[in-house]
Amino acid sequence: MHPALNRQRNIIDFTISSLLRRRVKNLSLLAVYTLIVFVIASLIFFVQSLKREAAVLLAEAPDIVVQRMIAGRHDLVPEAYARQIAGLRGVREVTPRLWGYYYDSVFGANYTLMVPDRAAPGPGTITIGSGVARNQRIKQGDLLTLRSAANAPLLLEVQGILPYASELVAADLISMSRSDFQTMFSFPDGVATDLAVSVANPREIATIAAKVAELFPDTRPIMKSEILRTYDTLFDWRSGMMVVMLAVAVLSFIIFAWDKATGLSAEERREIGVLKSIGWETADVLLLKFWEGAVISLTAFLTGVILAYGHVYFFSAGLFQHALKGWAVLYPQFRLIPVVDAYQLSILFLLTVFPYTAATIVPAWLAATVDPDAALRS
Amino acid sequence: MIELHHITKRFNSGRPNEFTAVDDVSLRIAARRITVLKGPSGSGKTTLLSLIGCMARPTAGRIVLHGIRPAFLPEGGAEDGIDISSLPERFLTEIRRSAFGFIFQQFNLVRGISVLENVMLPVYPTGAGYAVVRERARSLLELLRIERHAAARVDWLSGGELQRVAIARALINNPSLVIADEPTAHLDSRLSGEFMAIVADLTSEGRTVLIASHDPLVCESALADAVVEMRDGHIIGAGDAP
Amino acid sequence: MMPRASTLFLAVTAVNLLVGGLLLLHSRVEAVAAQPQRDLRRGLVRDWRLTDLCLFTEARYTRHPSMADRHAPFQDHPVALEHFPSGSLLTPPLQMRPHAPSP
């Protein structure tokens, strides 16, 4: 076997013997280290996957959504606006959207009720998202009772349930006919919740949005790019809980490294002296210290990342369920599509391995340069 | 065989605490013999050991080693011996690693790891094959009759057993020269006698042994071939053992 | 006879790297395999003109963050405390931020 390789292996042998002398301490260090990496890596995988999903799915969202504001709050938008906007050059079509929120006091869940502009269900029938079906434990053909704004019960037959794969976008949706929607909310004729504008040339979206705002100063056009950016900053590292997680992780790494960085104990110093006296050179001692740091941090990193991948993509991030669910009663179930973000993982690698390994080597530098005859003198 | 020509070692030159540990020492140490450097502490014998053992460089003078063949020299290049006082650091370390074995006063064994690993430790960084080294370590332990302790922690051994481990470790690289500094300082008379006996065996194997000690059991031992007396950095008496 | 410590370590590391490589492969394969489901979702977004993912159903502004107006979160007072845990996960939509870049 190649001498250079042998050298590394021999030194690793001693490194591990050395670490095993404080078995409990080092094993628990490894365990906690791995845990921290696991949590952060899980976050990275989860967030990246969701962001990618949002970017792909919401690329199909309406080009512009026109909301009407009164006294700074949402108001219904007259369909007359739609006709005028449709007349603008570059606008392909304007579709009024009818949708709203419904709170079901029996089940304690919030649903989104909507009227699709194409192939809407017939009056008295609805298509529901799989989350609603799960929440109410109903199946196709069952009746669903909603309480209208006039406080009258509305019975609707479930004509179809959306497939499980749609949960991420439609878990809480109830799609109904226009007449049922108007009955539900005492919704007047001639108005819509907002307008979905389709633009022929995507590069013109900003211009047309500006024109709409000029035409109707009481409206607020929301562009697709803004919708996408909202989701791009989803779970941003600057948002509340994420900052806390990140801070805890960074602090933990600092604490681990601190133990090493605050210098060597007298015993460690003596041991280095012994090694020097029996024929080890400074470079050999430093290599030993390097492996001491690398064995733990490398193993922690690899194991943590692998476990995180399994956690997020095979177990749908089960450990985050509680935090993500928050106070919601209806929470979508979905399997995330794996995304491996090399950039963020490299940063995590650097954060995990470098400070700890450096903290192990640097304090030993001075002790490692001691003269070999120091052991003779002591 | 080791030749020392007018060796001087001065510490802190030019400063108020300047100190001459070894002053103009000239000596010839015979090969395959036990030579004892006798003298009280502060006599410079430890410094002399470190100079001979390629651990430090003399301030003045030359040290020539005969009979060793380090890897960096071509065949037959060591006819006149090697002047180690002028060698670059790299070569010095190479010679120390390949030709010298050290036994320390405190044994200086690494606690918490096995006896076997302790014996193998000196050659770990050299890239030697693990199996070969382990075999050699085992045979050394067997030679010194402590093979049964191979897997034991050094913390559990008695003084005499530790002594043997220290000797085994000093021999792992098959050195031509064995240097021991106050080896009997922590040993009783019986163990001191045993030590001298083991060391005598080494010379019969063809090794040169150099011991620094002020213990009469060593200096006046019948097994010591030459005793060199030192005081204040000078040699005050050199001659064969009584 | 116990194997060498370094052998164990290198073996563990090798296994880790191997598993890592397999998982990387898995991510590629899975991405392709999940395409039909993704296409289903895309179709739904397109046909029903949806604007948000259904992640947090606690409140209006958490269910449709991209549609949220300035008042929705702060019904009582602009400096009211956050009601829902998801509020600590969601940052305000870009257009709500004081120095929002103009389109």
Keywords, separated by commas or semicolons:
heterotrimer, A: alpha+beta, Barwin-like endoglucanases, 2 domains, 10-stranded mixed beta sheet, two-stranded antiparallel ribbon, 18% strand, B: 242 residues, alpha/beta, Rossmann fold, 6-stranded mixed beta sheet, 4-stranded antiparallel beta sheet, 7 helices
Can you walk through the features of this model?
The complex is a heterotrimer of chains A (378), B (242) and C (103). In chain A, 54% of the residues lie in helices and 18% in strands. Chain A contains 14 helices and 12 strands. In chain A, a hairpin with a 2-residue loop joins strand 1 (64-70) and strand 2. In chain B, 44% of the residues are buried. A 6-stranded mixed sheet of chain B has the order 6-7-8-3-9-10, sandwiched between helices. A 4-stranded antiparallel sheet of chain B has the order 2-1-4-5, with helices on one face. Chain B has one domain (2-240): Rossmann fold (3-Layer(aba) Sandwich). Chain B is built from 7 helices and 10 strands. In chain B, strand 7 (177-181), helix 6 and strand 8 form a beta-alpha-beta unit. With 242 residues, chain B is an alpha/beta fold. Chain B has helices spanning 45-52, 89-99, 115-120, 130-143, 159-171, 189-204, 216-219; strands at 2-11, 19-29, 34-38, 60-65, 82-83, 100-103, 177-181, 208-213, 226-231, 234-240. Chain C is built from 3 helices and no strands. The radius of gyration of chain C is 23 Å and the shape is elongated. Chain C starts with a helix and ends in a 40-residue tail after the last helix. Classes of the chains: A alpha+beta (378), B alpha/beta (242), C mainly alpha (103).
